[in-house]
Amino acid sequence: MCFERRGVGLFVPLDRARRAEAASALGSLERGMEILLCLAAGMRPMNLTQVHRSTGFSKTTTHRLLGTLQRRGLVTRTGGDYTVGGRLADLVAPRGWAVQGRRLPGSRRAVLPHLLQLYEVTRQTVNLAVPDGSEVAYVERLYGHNRVKSPSDGVDRAPLHCTATGKVLLAYDAGLRAAFLAAPAPRRMTGRTVTAPVALERELAAVRGEGVGYAREEFAEGVCCVAAPVFGPDGGVCMAVAVAAPVGAAALPRLGAAVRRTAHQITGALLL
């Protein structure tokens, strides 16, 4: 039998040592896979405590494995939250997006052609957003070389109250609106940001009346945006489609008509 030296004066059978190492590696691999499956199941950000509780692993082990997965590009960290990232996200996304914990199967395949058509018509940044707490999460974005710069670049997230997509989601989701208005007053992002509850509710009522939401330099100076609601099979709003452009680049009413038409087309596609 062959032996392998381990430390001073300590020898163990080589095949047993290799089996132990293989078992240890397999255990780490399985735990890493469990974490990836946990994050991919809902396709929404989770913090360390949430991942630790969902998987049952110790916090130390969870933190170590999340760090490894992040270094390998399989997990993305934004602040204290983790999501599947890189090539893994590209593989998961075609199955459909998660909307408030409920996945819409095949939604990406049905929706993407309409987003591309909207970009071809407007030649401005096209966004598709879903609600996530007090923020919108941009699950799809199309843009060219002249992309308008925004604080959401790189993080694909923005506050509900000062974005066109956020206003649309607040306007059509009574539960989301009630929770948002019951929370502490939101932060003012620019001099044009609407934060007073009464003023915000008045604007959300206008969104419902017109079927389109606007944000005029409320999230970032020099950026305007127009959005419209997308309704799911259950009749409730599930997403918002939007176009973002530099101020003065295009007439908002014209952009609004194109966005509203696209949202209607996407709603029809999701019902098929």
TrEMBL record:
Gene3D superfamilies membership: 3.30.450.40, Winged helix-like DNA-binding domain superfamily/Winged helix DNA-binding domain
Highest taxon, organism lineage: Bacteria
Keywords: DNA-binding, Transcription, Transcription regulation
Protein name: Transcriptional regulator, IclR family
DNA-binding is among the record's keywords: yes
Pfam families in the record: HTH_IclR (PF09339), IclR_C (PF01614)
Domain HTH iclR-type: 26-86
Database matches in SMART domains: HTH_ICLR
BP term (GO), one: negative regulation of DNA-templated transcription
Domain IclR-ED, first and last residues per copy: 91-272
InterPro entries: GAF-like_dom_sf, HTH_MetabolicPath_Reg, Tscrpt_reg_IclR_C, Tscrpt_reg_IclR_N, WH-like_DNA-bd_sf, WH_DNA-bd_sf
GO function term, MF aspect, one: DNA binding
Lineage: Bacteria, Bacillati, Actinomycetota, Actinomycetes, Streptosporangiales
